UniProtKB/TrEMBL annotation:
It comes from Pseudomonas benzenivorans. The active site is at residue 316. This is Nicotinate-nucleotide--dimethylbenzimidazole phosphoribosyltransferase. It is an enzyme of class 2 (transferase). It catalyses: 5,6-dimethylbenzimidazole + nicotinate beta-D-ribonucleotide = alpha-ribazole 5'-phosphate + nicotinate + H(+). Pathway: Nucleoside biosynthesis; alpha-ribazole biosynthesis; alpha-ribazole from 5,6-dimethylbenzimidazole: step 1/2. GO terms for molecular function: nicotinate-nucleotide-dimethylbenzimidazole phosphoribosyltransferase activity. PANTHER family: NICOTINATE-NUCLEOTIDE--DIMETHYLBENZIMIDAZOLE PHOSPHORIBOSYLTRANSFERASE (PTHR43463). Keywords: Cobalamin biosynthesis, Glycosyltransferase, Transferase.
Length: 350
């Protein structure tokens, strides 16, 4: 049987470049390890980019959007129409990620994979895989063909970004109801009850959170017998935009572009990507730990070391964008600090 593209080999990090970067870190005018996570980031980026002095000046941000049939179960504090309205806000420059992209000088692409109502917005790439997903509490969220097309949409977005010279890729998401789908996926992946992971999403109260947990538990009971492999879980419990994120992360690993992962939903997609192809894991950097209760558990499963802890729960790729300056500074410190020899500074005594 022919392998799916996402099962094919990922690019291996460049171990020679890693060793050169590690050696340079030991020569810089500071105690070894004194810049902590920033040193590890610079070395990791060097290995991923295959050069002793890495750079993340050229950043591409891809926002994937889609509606969710599970909204019919009353799991969101916002109406479904907000998904489409926010697409217009993204391209008009008024959303948080739009502001952040401008400040970073990052390229921003918005991809509509399927809103409940058809849209034609200038500046948005409309793919329309369906009028949103089906209600995952009543049946599979999408067909196998829709799932494959959503994964492909993420890969295509990364390929466009790479063609434009991206040194770092950030995926973001928009879709009312998508914390429900992401939590259901996380519960299956981590084999834990919904109550351990479910959170307020867009702002549910306590009763709303309890109802959301009950909807997720019912969905898991419905679908678990039919889930044999990770692709089945994505098809039955996921969302178009979540699968596009999975596809983008897997494409990053295959094409050799580091990915900076955003919040809870993006981290669930990252975990799904690792379950589909474990070799993609080195290509995933993690920006922050957000306020959704399940995010910490997902990061632990990924053995991730997030950069920021700011209590974020916005999505859109915003937390990842906020972490870009740290990555840039890590690269600049690595490249521009003087060595002990250059600065005529005495090294530590043996």
């Amino acid at each position: 049987m022919t392998q799916a593209w996402w099962q094919q080999a990922c690019r291996a990090p460049d171990e020679a470049a890693r060793a050169q970067a590690e050696a340079r870190q030991l020569q810089l005018t500071k105690p070894a390890g004194s810049l902590g996570q920033l040193e590890r980031l610079a070395v990791q980026l060097a290995a991923l980019q295959g050069r002793q002095r890495p750079s993340v000046e050229r950043v591409a941000i891809g926002i994937f959007a889609g509606d969710h049939g599970v909204v019919a179960e009353g799991v969101s504090a916002f109406p479904q129409a907000v998904t489409g309205q926010m697409l217009g806000n993204f391209v008009a420059g008024g959303a948080a990620i739009s502001v952040l992209a401008r400040q970073l000088g990052a390229a921003l692409e918005v991809v509509d994979l399927g809103t409940a109502q058809p849209l034609q917005l200038p500046g948005v790439r409309h793919l329309r895989l369906g009028a949103g997903t089906a209600n995952l509490a009543r049946g599979p969220a999408m067909s196998a063909e829709q799932a494959r097309l959503a994964l492909q949409a993420g890969r295509d977005a990364l390929l466009r970004a790479q063609q434009d010279g991206a040194e770092l890729f950030i995926g973001g998401e928009m879709g009312i109801g998508n914390t429900t789908a992401a939590t259901a996926l996380a519960c299956w992946q981590l084999d834990c009850p919904a109550a351990a992971l479910v959170g307020p999403g867009t702002g549910l109260d306590g009763a709303g959170v309890a109802h959301k947990a009950a909807v997720i538990e019912a969905a898991l009971a419905l679908h678990r017998p039919a889930i044999v492999e990770p692709f089945d879980a994505l098809q039955r419990l996921g969302g178009f935009e979540i699968l596009a994120l999975v596809g983008a992360y897997l494409a990053c690993a295959r094409q050799g572009v580091p990915a900076l992962v955003d919040g809870f939903i993006c981290s669930v997609a990252a975990l799904a990507a690792v379950r589909l192809n474990p070799d993609c894991r080195p290509w995933l950097l993690f920006a922050h730990q957000g306020a959704e209760p399940g995010h910490r558990r997902v990061l632990q499963a990924l053995e991730a070391e997030p950069l920021l802890h700011l209590g974020l729960r916005l999505g859109e790729g915003s937390g990842a964008a906020l972490a870009v300056p740290l990555l840039r500074l890590a690269c600049q410190l690595h490249s521009e600090m003087a060595t002990f020899a250059e600065a005529a500074v005495a090294e530590r005594a043996p």
